[in-house]
Amino acid sequence: MVASMQRRWTVEDVATYLGVPVKTLYKWRCQCYGPVGVRIGKHLRYDSDEVVAWFDAQKLAS
Questions:
Q1: Is 5 part of any domain?
Q2: What is the 8-class DSSP label of residue 35?
Q3: Is 18 inside any structural domain?
Q4: Which residues of 10-20 are buried (b: 16+ CB within 10 A; e: fewer)?
Q5: Is it the case that residue 62 has pLDDT exceeding 90?
Q6: What pLDDT sits at residue 5?
Q7: Domain hosting residue 30, numbered range
Q8: Where do the TM regions start and end (predicted)?
Q9: Which contacts qualify for 30-36: CB closer than 8 Å, 24 or more apart?
Q10: pLDDT at 4
Q11: 18: closest CA among 35, 41, 40?
Q12: For the chain, does the N or the C end have fewer beta carbons within 10 angstroms?
């Protein structure tokens, strides 16, 4: 199995994509809402495909 060499998104990248403040992403994380992020040491990273899939699911839910 070959690991994806795709660059992971930072909190700032996700905030820009979703059009929300970074603070909102951290709030969502505490509420177990929003796209799933993974903590790597002190850094939080997101899989871009999962962020897009989460966003698309929100469109279907409304």
A1: no
A2: S
A3: yes
A4: ebeebbeebee
A5: no
A6: 73
A7: 11-61
A8: none
A9: none
A10: 63
A11: 35
A12: N
The H or E element containing residue 45 is strand 43-46
Q: Structural domain tally of the chain? A: 1
Kindly report, residue by residue over 1-53, the tens digit of the pLDDT: 556 678 899 999 999 999 999 999 999 999 999 999 999 999 999 999 999 99
Q: In the structure encoding, which two tokens stand for residue 60, read together?
A: 């279907």
Name every residue whose Cβ is closer than 8 Å to that of residue 50 and which is 6 or more positions away in sequence.
35, 36
Residue 1 lies in a domain: no
One-letter amino acid of 44: L
Residue 3 has a pLDDT of 60
- Residue 53 CB contacts under 8 Å (≥ 6 apart), including other chains: none
